[in-house]
Write a structure and sequence with these properties.
globular, 6 helices, 120 residues, mainly alpha
Length: 120
């Protein structure tokens, strides 16, 4: 069984990459404060805004979140397989997709093209 969960840092990273789709030049102060409270450094925050992480499984989770938020069927199918191969359970993958879709829905007023696109 995988020890990877949708914990605070992964949730926040998912929110940061979704927020960057609105092309915000800086991280909102409340998000940065939350990131610092969770122990994230500036480089980790910047990486999350680009849909990346220094942790391989978190990077896979963010790629899945981007594909789910973009509602790109072909890319989503591919991105669903990668986290599972890296040890993230299918249940957690479902949680990541749901969170990303919820966050994308709450930012539906953003431009039609996101500043961060899925990798595939």
């Amino acid at each position: 069984m995988s020890s990877f969960t949708l914990e605070g840092r992964v949730r926040l990273s998912t929110a940061l990459v979704q927020g960057n789709g609105k092309r915000e030049p800086t991280v909102p102060p409340e998000r940065e404060a939350e990131a610092r409270r969770l122990g994230m450094c500036g480089a980790e925050i910047d990486a999350a805004r680009r849909g990346q992480s220094f942790d391989a499984r978190t990077s896979r989770a963010l790629a899945l979140a981007l594909a789910a938020a973009a509602r790109d069927g072909g890319c989503l199918t591919e991105e669903r397989e990668r986290p599972i191969r890296s040890g993230i359970s299918a249940e957690v993958c479902g949680e990541i997709e749901s969170l990303a879709e919820d966050l994308a829905g709450s930012t539906a007023t953003r431009d039609s093209e996101s500043a961060v696109a899925p990798a595939c």
